[in-house]
Specification:
The chain is mostly beta strands. It is built from three helices and 27 strands.
């Protein structure tokens, strides 16, 4: 099943499902928009190398929901420039293979971010892999590396040697940055409650929940004005009211 992760009013830095190939991606950057087709709030890469100008993206978010799609040709989505928005608009990043966020993305208003990839999360030799984040670290301004009130539910695995595997984050180098976050102990395959982070045990901001528990109602700290829980929606997993699954 696709991996879907939803983040409400959070800041995300260095979230990486897997290593990206430099020659193939839908990249958000200062480059002029190129090889991207946008219609009714959906922007799809039309070639292996595609660019969406960050100012163009912010303009669209000011007026409505936006979905970025990297199909099989582009494979990945890469955020190569910091940006933020203050409206209630939702941003969805939908990648065939992986998503990488190298710069600060801030939701200042009631909007939200949804990350979707096509399958499980698999790390290669020497990489760090987690259900939501590969590597989390504070690399820029204060709040960089902060992830709050988020969850992951996809399968997590490692195909080589070296690196770290965690239910939520592969390596958490900014130990005070993650709070109120959860992962699915059953669906992830990372079943030890101590292994929310792969590089050390019992990361205080991450809690593992059984699949049935995660689907039985909103986890502690999830605002019911922001999140919904319904057995008939999103497979019973929590979803953002402002950006429900289609």
């Amino acid at each position: 099943m696709p991996v879907r992760v939803r983040i409400a009013a959070a800041v995300c830095v260095c979230l990486s499902f897997s290593a990206l190939q430099a020659h193939a991606a839908l990249t958000v950057s200062v480059h002029a928009t190129k090889n991207v087709s946008c219609s009714a709030g959906v922007c799809t890469a039309t070639a292996a190398m595609a660019y969406l100008n960050v100012s163009d993206l912010q303009t669209m978010l000011a007026s409505g929901d936006v979905k970025l799609v990297a199909p099989a040709a582009a494979k990945d989505i890469q955020i190569s420039r910091a940006f933020h928005w203050g409206s209630a608009s939702g941003l969805t990043l939908d990648a065939y293979r992986s998503i990488r966020v190298d710069f600060r993305v801030a939701v200042d208003g009631a909007g939200a971010v949804t990350l979707t990839t096509n399958g499980s999360v698999t790390g290669m030799s020497g990489s760090n892999v987690g259900g939501l984040i590969g590597n989390n670290q504070e690399i820029g301004p204060p709040d960089s590396g902060v992830v709050q009130k988020s969850y992951s539910a996809g399968a997590v695995s490692h195909a080589g040697s070296g690196g770290h595997v965690g239910g939520f984050v592969g390596s958490d180098a900014y130990t005070s940055g993650i709070s109120g976050c959860y992962w699915d102990l059953d669906m992830s395959g990372v079943s030890s409650p101590a292994d929310g982070a792969g590089n050390y045990n019992n990361d205080a901001g991450i809690t593992g929940l059984a699949d049935a528990t995660l689907k039985s109602g909103l986890p502690a700290g999830f605002d019911p004005a922001v999140w919904g829980s319904d057995p008939a929606i999103n497979g019973g997993l929590p979803y953002l009211l402002s950006n429900p699954p289609q």
